[in-house]
Design a protein that fits this description.
By secondary structure, the protein is mainly α. It is built from 17 helices and no strands. It has 2 domains: 165 residues, AhpD-like; 123 residues, AhpD-like (Up-down Bundle), CATH 1.20.1290.10.
Length: 387
């Protein structure tokens, strides 16, 4: 009986936290009744085969409540590589990526993509506007609206009705979904690079106007906080296998240190993964992501005091070292876009490199999800907030 009372109290506390995000069932005029977001419901069976495969893979490898982002991406172009093949064009794809890199103060991502942007003939004036956070009034409509959408999404974690309508009118639905999908993808990439403090390889210039001092906690060969791994053999018979990033650096190399979601689930408690999800949802003010995951977190044993600390952004004193170190790490990563050496050392001591890489991957997934949810104004299921 006592255990039942404790569990009931925990669930009630979690419900109370989710109620802060309460919403009215009356939907805005630009939100579809079937999908409860700005895109009409499109089922995987009615999407192109490539989109179906992408959807199935995303759903199978996502940590947390069933995501909405993959279903939104069913409206994207039916291509394999959005960056290289979207009809929006190579230059505008780079505008979306550069805007994301700039809004996350991510020098590695920015610097490599500035080179790519110049290679595909993006006007240097556009690059400078993004780099310097300048007004977009002198740019073309497409360049300007992509930059403005990215700035609004990443600064306010929402996209106003008029901003969405303007972007939709200028880009069209498919191109807009492509652009937001790229932004979502690279928000996750930025989280990975920042968490492990990826620096520019020797000989590469850092092009963002950020204060720079070479940190003391990186390896000289990988130029990040993780040791260099042996290179993956290059197979010239397989197209696109040669990486675009300098050897030994970048998000792909960092992810190789992890074991993947199944490894993480076998190594840490489910409530630890839930905590990583909730930290990401809270730091992105993601109403849908928080509400759909906080209830499961209570069932998985995440204590109400920990949930409240995340929701209220309380000091972590009094929490266990495991919870406190992960919360502090997530706050710095997702809100400050820089993780101090002491914060990193503290959390890696608790979780180890492999599990931390995988926990960052979970946070990155939910950073991507939050971008899609905000852009297309995903609302909760009918009655979900009224508990």
């Amino acid at each position: 009986m006592n255990r039942f009372i404790i569990l009931a109290a925990a669930v009630i506390t979690v419900f109370a936290a989710s109620r802060v995000f309460a919403q009215n069932d009356a939907l805005p005029s630009d939100v579809s009744l079937d999908s409860r977001n700005r895109l009409p419901l499109l089922k995987p069976d009615n999407a192109p085969e490539r989109a179906q495969r992408t959807y199935d893979n995303a759903m199978a490898n996502f940590a947390g409540a069933q995501p909405k982002g993959p279903s939104m991406r069913l409206h994207a172009s039916p291509v394999i590589n959005l960056q290289m093949q979207s009809p929006v064009g190579l230059d505008l794809s780079q505008v979306a990526i550069l805007t994301t890199g700039r809004e996350h103060d991510q020098p590695y991502e920015w610097s490599l993509h500035e080179l790519q942007a110049l290679a595909v003939s993006l006007d240097p004036t556009v690059i400078e506007v993004i780099r310097r956070n300048q007004l977009t009034s002198k740019l073309g409509d497409k360049e300007a609206v992509i930059i403005e959408v990215g700035r609004e999404l990443f600064r306010t974690h929402k996209l106003r009705t008029d901003s969405y309508a303007r972007a939709l009118g200028i880009l069209g639905k498919t191109n807009l979904v492509d652009v937001v999908s790229l932004m979502a993808d690279y928000a996750g990439v930025c989280a990975t690079l920042t968490a492990f403090n990826q620096q520019m390889p020797p000989g590469f210039k850092q092009f963002l106007p950020l204060p720079f001092t070479l940190p003391s906690d990186i390896h000289p060969d990988s130029r990040n906080r993780l040791p260099l791994l042996p290179p993956v053999p290059y197979n010239p018979a397989v197209l696109y296998t040669r990486p675009m990033t300098p050897e030994g650096t970048g998000p792909g190399q960092i992810r190789r240190h992890g074991g993947g979601l199944r490894s993480l689930q076998a190594s840490v408690a489910r409530r630890d993964i839930d905590l990583a999800i909730l930290i990401s949802a809270r730091e992105h003010d993601s109403q849908y992501d928080w509400t759909m995951n906080v209830l499961e977190a209570g069932k998985d044993g995440l204590e109400p005091a920990v949930v409240a600390a995340v929701w209220d952004r309380k000091p972590t004193a009094g929490l266990t070292e495991k919870d406190a170190s992960l919360i502090e790490f997530g706050r710095e990563l997702l809100s400050k876009h820089v993780v101090a050496a002491t914060t990193y050392a503290r959390v890696v001591k608790v979780f180890g490199e492999r599990d931390l890489v995988d926990l960052v991957a979970v946070m990155g997934q939910h950073a991507s999800e939050a971008t899609m949810l905000a852009a297309f104004d995903q609302h909760l299921p009918v009655g979900q907030a009224h508990r």
